[in-house]
Design a protein that fits this description.
The structure is a homodimer. Chain A is mainly alpha-helical. Chain A contains seven helices and two strands. In chain A, helix 6 packs antiparallel against helix 7. The two termini of chain A are about 30 Å apart. Chains A and B meet through helix 1, helix 2 and helix 6 of A and helix 1, helix 2 and helix 6 of B.
């Protein structure tokens, strides 16, 4: 497991990819943002079937990057609850634009098509509501 | 080299990551969008120093995904010019949001800070101008 994130350059896109440039990290953020998932076990259940070692690695990178934080689960000391930090919540517009782009060009779930319709109608409102949901918590 | 892109699910985020979920692909898009690069040799020169085999692989995936197209260089038959398709140009808002997020939280180049200031002032205008630049070509 990595000890620290190494940045290849000071390009903001490159820097972002040094953190989440892989097939899995943004899916964990997706699960936190849109699917109400907050535990290791819940992330493992997602349909893309992330492997346990990859999940552990990505959670550790996300924590190192200050995108998620963890606390003890109130029901069990053995369980951990993951939360998005302000830096993680600020990824909402990135994910929204990825969804809008991908829905336009790919065969996606009906619920994603429905969500994209809301985006076409009033993207700012959807983004604002998502931010409100997460800053209330 | 991959023959086709395999999609893990019909989630739009997962689908997008099946195409560009790595540390390099969006840097090639960045070079096409913001740095006026259009040839293999130009992509190799970028400061992150992409390896030739990775570059060839990513260009082939981008072409398969319909994000770039290629044509012969007018100066030399041995050279290829890469262009963004409409699907590639539609990635502008994704890259813009990544830049805005990354600039807020990371140590980035002065020119990226300056660009982020323009985004804070009028993001829609910057996005519109970028679209205009590319749809004129």
């Amino acid at each position: 497991m990595k000890k620290k994130i190494e940045f290849r350059s000071q390009c903001p896109i490159s820097t972002a990819l040094d953190i989440f440039g892989d097939k899995w990290t943004l899916l964990v953020i997706r699960d936190l943002l849109f699917n109400g998932k907050r535990t290791y076990g819940e992330f493992l259940e997602s349909e893309e079937k992330i492997a346990t070692n990859i999940l552990a690695d990505r959670l550790s990178i996300l924590e190192m990057a200050g995108i998620i934080s963890k606390k003890k689960h109130p029901d069990s000391n053995a369980k951990i609850l993951y939360n998005l930090t302000a830096k993680g919540i600020d990824l909402i517009p990135v994910l929204i634009e990825i969804i809008a782009w991908s829905e336009k060009y790919h065969d996606v779930h009906p619920y994603a098509k429905k969500f994209a319709k809301q985006l076409h109608k009033d993207k700012e409102k959807v983004v604002r509501q998502l931010f409100e949901n997460f800053t209330k918590k």
